[in-house]
Specification:
- The complex is a heterodimer of chains A (341) and B (229).
- In chain A, helix 2 packs across helix 8 and helix 10 crosses helix 13.
- The radius of gyration of chain A is 22 Å and the shape is globular.
- Chain A has a two-stranded antiparallel ribbon with strand order 1-2.
- Chain A has 15 helices and two strands.
- Chain B is of the alpha+beta class.
- In chain B, the strands form two sheets. In chain B, strands 3, 4, 5, 6, 8, 9, 10, 11 and 13 form a nine-stranded mixed β-sheet that branches. In chain B, strands 1, 2, 7, 12 and 14 form a five-stranded mixed β-sheet that branches.
- In chain B, strand 1 and strand 2 form a beta hairpin.
- The termini of chain B are far apart.
- The chains are: A mainly alpha (341), B alpha+beta (229).
- Chains A and B meet through helix 1, helix 4, helix 5, helix 6 and helix 8 of A and helix 1 of B.
Chain lengths: 341, 229
Amino acid sequence: MKKKQIIFLGFLGLTAIAFKGKGEKDIERPKHFPEPTYSFQNNPMSVDKIYLGRVLFYDPILSRNNTIACSNCHSPYNAFTHVDHALSHGIEDREGKRNSPALMNLAWQPYFMWDGAINHLDMQSLFPITHPDEMGETIENVVMKLKEKRAYRNLFLKAYGDSSITGERLLKAFSSFMVQLVSANSKYDSVMRKTSIFASQEKRGYDLFKTHCNACHTEPLFTNYRFESNGLSLDPVLKDIGRAGISQNPKDSFLFKIPTLRNIEFSYPYMHDGRFKKLKEVLNHYNKDFGKGKYGSVNKPIQLSSEEQVDLMAFLLTLSDRAFLFNQDYAYPREFLKEGK
Amino acid sequence: MIQRAIFICMVMILLGTFVHGQQSLVLSIKPMMGKEELILGKAYIDARGDTMNIETLRFYLSNFMFYSKGKSVWQEKNSYHLVEGDDSAKRSIALRIPPKIKYDAMGFTWGVDSTANVSGAMGGDLDPTKGMYWTWQNGYINTKIEGTCSSSTVAKGSFQMHLGGYAYPFRADQHLLFSLGEGNTLQIKIQLEQFFEQIDWVKQNRIMSPSNDAVQLSEALSKTIQVKQ
């Protein structure tokens, strides 16, 4: 009798150890960043869940005809944006209405999309999966397709302790992977950590940046996540009214979420419709047309000399984070997607 | 010795949940067309002479809360119930109220409250695979009613109502309160015919996002609800 009890208790203890804290993994929390806003308490991170999210992110099984993965529009070597396409390309080469944003530091972002249509990272993945011009699928069907694959049942088992696959679990796995995409190891960051210093040109650029840009592209995330207009003219074909489409408030017309400038060297083309291919064109815009929009801020063209523009550019390049771009933890999970199925 | 004590405690706790039976209150949800309980796919002639055929009826009831003399005495945890018009099992809700709780009123929400709408992915009846979450914007659809109506002018007389919205000024969830006597069954009747009579079919046959119409129709719908013991 006594022996049995001990075995029983021992077994309980072992399972407790096995399930508690196994492979728990927090995100990188840089000291010079504020507290992240993602609701970690509802989605505890683990190595296995993050891996599941990563596999899903690269797997075209998510689209109706199994051709398009998240990574088609969010490529890791371009800070997870869609390289070379002004407007993102989805299923059957359909063109979307907007440029895909670079994905990074999402755990700090309070809402998502250029117009803030999505209020929580967990819900973000539903949009591309179901959008007719992106992946054209239904979440119900994605869950069915995943259930049929033993390899996925195994991954869900590892990530959640049992192999049942639900919409909630799917969405939370995506978030687990996406919040890992922390970019905080650029030259700028090492200057903030006092392990490096700016070259004099970069320093001059940094000062110009603080004068002209930091009010919106606020350090250290290089956005304050507000909706603003930087004076882009309305594209007569797309007729994108921005935030007002969601808030239904005319005052929000032509306002867009201020994007981060981290890794800006790699996340071309620029702006919500990808109208600028080069950073130089962006600076030209701020130099001449900034603040000319009917709505939004009361800014004026910044009118920098060409030397100053070069300085500002030198600073913007210190926001490139190669350790982030080439991080193998975020890369295509070859071992699973090639063999797993 | 200590181990034995722990073991016994655990067994007691386990048994306790079974032995200490709970009083349960069974709510049967009855969508009505006139005096008849609604059957999906069946043609009805309503009071205005329109022929109605309802193909989809799905909605959330949530946050069941019980009161005694105006004070809250019991609240269901994680209280979100998706009621399905075509599934009789999903037209009934059993609430496990502890026996010592005495109450004289019940409150609930028609729809999903705003907290659940901003808290990320949820499971159970709130799982997005249930088809009640808008995907191109945020938020749950509180009520889906789809079908055909002879006087709905657009799209071959078909109508689609996806009523929802969790944020000001288009908040569509409705809070309802009913006084109750004793008993362990309740009927919640929704007088759909009264609701349909208030619809302007020419303008209101396709409602797919939070709007004034969605708020107004959600109010109208919730006013047709009666609780019978």
